[in-house]
Amino acid sequence: MAQKLWGGRFREDIDALVNRFNASLRFDHRLYAHDIEGSMAHCRMLVAKDIISDREAALILDALEDIRDRLERNEIPLGDDEDIHGLVERLLVEKIGDVGAKLHTGRSRNDQVALDVRLWVKAAIGRITDLVRRTQAALLTLAEENIDISLAG
Predict the structure, then answer these.
(1) Which of 123, 37, 44, 14 is nearest to 85 (CA)?
(2) How far apart are CA 104 and CA 136, in angstroms?
(3) Contact 3, 88 (CB under 8 A)
(4) Radius of gyration over every alpha carbon of the chain, rounded to an integer in angstroms
(5) Residues 40-73, buried b or exposed e (16+ Cβ, 10 A)?
(6) Which of 22, 40, 110, 148 is most buried when burial is the number of CB atoms within 10 A of its CB?
(7) Consecutive 10-residue averages of pLDDT for the chain (153 residues)
(8) What is the pLDDT, as a whole number, of residue 21?
């Protein structure tokens, strides 16, 4: 079952239109690798601060690797989860039980979003920089190959 971030105090179910409006999974699913990378780093911090045990961390880290691999292979359908963070957390808890819920300790959803976006932007900058360099190299090659051609300027 998909996890909802809010609405626990309401007596009636939230309207489906509100859920659709609030959901971001349809476009933030591309952050899955960054979300899992951040979750793995957070898990290692929880161990370093003696908040979770080495055994719990091993379970969490192994499960996160499996989830990442399955998402990379498109083996996990994007369903009713509100966002990528909820999807990963739900899959983690389904896989390893209550130990998976400990990963959220000391971290807010806003922290996750900010980290995921920063990691995604950093990766995008790397890809764009590579493309600019390749374009520059192609233009330089064309210029060198056509050095004797005169063009009106």
Answers:
(1) 37
(2) 45
(3) no
(4) 22
(5) bebbeebbeeeebeeebbebbbebbeebbeebee
(6) 40
(7) 52 66 77 96 97 97 98 88 90 96 93 94 97 98 94 82
(8) 60
Read off the pTM: 0.77
In the block, residue with structure tokens 């520059």: 136
Question: Which long-range CB contacts under 8 A does 146-150 form with residues at least 24 apart?
Answer: none
- pLDDT score for 25: 81
**What count of Cα atoms within 13 Å lies in the side-chain half-sphere of residue 67?**
30
Under a CB-based contact definition with an 8 Å cutoff, are residues 76 and 91 in contact?
yes
Distance (Å, rounded) from C-alpha 152 to C-alpha 79? 58
Could you give all domains of the chain from N- to C-terminal order, each with its CATH number?
A: 16-145 (1.10.275.10)
The answer to whether 37 and 97 have CB atoms below 8 angstroms apart is no
